[in-house]
């Protein structure tokens, strides 16, 4: 018979991705009694299935591409891809998907850890069910922090649920590159993993339902990636609606499109976004629609502000709908910790959220796209500079062209968005992020001296087009 026990803590943190772990640790170090709950691996998606292992795969694939460029630039070379060292490095980086080190680190900061599924059963109460069905009902005296993250979203395509499709989690754990791969979704995850597998010899086909790859980003990013990925040998289908999916042992996966097209591959990676399960979290217990895409939060990340001695409910990370990025959860964790400790400080601001797609070329972006800025009614002017013209010789050696695009609000005289696409686009993005975040006047940016020959000097060329 399952057991039920009661517990009490100052703060209960549900979800221990990077932001949840940071919030729990800091609150415990501040002297609060903190109970932290997670059914999965402490550390969340990033160290085990996301940022870190995927970048090992991406960097390994980039090494192959660089080796293939030696001939004609620096001598001759024969490149033979081998997935085994990649898989070995991923296993080492994730400790073979074991979180003992992370749990010890968390407990070492003074946090009490419960392994299990945490669910709100009242405003002050989180019920934790472990793998054996035993329950611990934890009453929060001061605060509940919801940091449950998100799961891969799987579209309701007829036949898909009956197949052994991959999500990004499955793709990260493979011991060998598949012979062929269908990637459903042309966003960051699908493109990063698709290009990596392609460079290890996998025949890759990307299927995107909208008109563009990376539909959230500037159309110029789509055009650049479409050119480069096609040159890599990836088959790309946009505006492609999948009607049904079939799987046969030996044959593999077959995708049937609405236009009568039929695509076949040994494996299928579903990379169509992520979602937070508010029903599983028990959102109705705090009078939040459990079918909503995210928890509603104010500028202090409060879902329910504390009142009359009752604990407040805070949220951070993917579940807030402000961006499924590790850096977002860490940023929000700081706001939440300051709020619970009563330290004040600036509220959360989202006008300069950076994001990077680690394809080659990298697509780094911050703030608003041109379309988003115009939809908000801003008086917009843009500047677009070609990397090949701004840094002659560098792009030829690295292998890809690129661009810098700036979006300016002419009434306020500041940049509201920018994209750095090309070699080291994520690093070039740093200068744009500072400019957008600090609302640096265009007049100041135009007076800056940009080093030559560097990729970031294309920012100066793009500023010159804004006028």
UniProtKB/TrEMBL annotation:
Alphabetized UniProt keyword annotations: FAD, Flavoprotein
Top-rank lineage group of the source organism: Bacteria
Similarity field: Belongs to the class-I pyridine nucleotide-disulfide oxidoreductase family.
Cofactor names: FAD
The keyword Flavoprotein belongs to this UniProt entry's keyword annotation: yes
Domain FAD/NAD(P)-binding: start-end pairs: 10-332
Taxonomic source organism: Streptantibioticus rubrisoli
Protein name (record): NAD(P)/FAD-dependent oxidoreductase
Record-annotated Pyridine nucleotide-disulphide oxidoreductase dimerisation domain positions: 353-462
Keyword flag Lyase: no
Pfam family, one: Pyr_redox_2
């Amino acid at each position: 018979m399952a057991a039920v026990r009661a517990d009490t803590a100052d703060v209960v943190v549900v979800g221990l991705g990077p932001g949840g772990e940071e919030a729990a640790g800091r609150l415990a170090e501040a002297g609060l009694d903190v109970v932290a709950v997670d059914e999965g691996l402490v550390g969340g998606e990033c160290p085990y299935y996301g940022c870190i292992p995927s970048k090992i795969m991406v960097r390994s694939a980039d090494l192959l591409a660089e080796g293939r460029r030696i001939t004609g630039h620096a001598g001759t070379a024969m490149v033979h891809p081998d997935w085994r060292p990649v898989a070995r490095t991923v296993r080492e980086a994730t400790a073979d998907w074991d979180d003992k080190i992370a749990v010890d680190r968390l407990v070492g900061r003074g946090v009490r850890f419960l392994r299990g599924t945490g669910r709100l059963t009242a405003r002050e109460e989180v019920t934790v069910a472990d793998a054996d069905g035993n329950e611990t009902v934890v009453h929060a005296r001061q605060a509940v922090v919801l940091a449950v993250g998100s799961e891969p979203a799987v579209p309701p395509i007829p036949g898909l649920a009956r197949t052994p499709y991959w999500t990004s989690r499955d793709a990260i754990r493979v011991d060998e590159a598949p012979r062929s791969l269908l990637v459903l979704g042309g966003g960051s995850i699908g493109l990063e993993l698709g290009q990596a597998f392609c460079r290890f010899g996998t025949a890759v086909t990307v299927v995107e339902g909208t008109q563009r790859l990376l539909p959230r980003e500037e159309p110029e990013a789509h055009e650049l990636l479409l050119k480069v990925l096609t040159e890599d040998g990836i088959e790309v289908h946009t505006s492609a609606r999948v009607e049904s999916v079939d799987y046969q042992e030996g044959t593999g996966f077959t995708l049937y499109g609405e236009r009568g097209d039929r695509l076949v591959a040994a494996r299928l990676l579903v990379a169509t976004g992520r979602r937070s399960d508010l029903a599983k979290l028990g959102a109705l217990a705090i009078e939040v629609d459990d079918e909503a895409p995210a928890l509603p939060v104010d500028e202090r990340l409060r879902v329910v502000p504390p009142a009359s001695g009752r604990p407040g409910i805070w949220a951070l990370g993917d579940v807030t709908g402000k961006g499924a990025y590790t850096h977002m959860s860490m940023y929000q964790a700081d706001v939440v910790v300051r709020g619970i400790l009563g330290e004040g400080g600036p509220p959360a601001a989202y006008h300069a959220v950076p994001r990077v797609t680690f394809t080659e070329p990298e697509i780094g972006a911050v703030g608003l796209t041109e379309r988003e800025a115009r939809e908000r009614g801003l008086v917009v002017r843009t500047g677009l500079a070609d990397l090949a013209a701004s840094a002659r010789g560098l792009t030829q050696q690295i292998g890809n062209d690129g661009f810098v695009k700036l979006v300016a609000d002419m009434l306020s005289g500041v940049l509201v968005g920018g994209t750095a696409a090309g070699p080291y686009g994520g690093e070039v993005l740093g200068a744009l992020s500072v400019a957008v975040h600090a609302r640096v006047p265009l007049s100041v940016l135009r007076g800056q001296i940009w080093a030559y020959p560097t990729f970031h000097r294309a920012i100066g060329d793009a500023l010159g087009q804004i006028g």
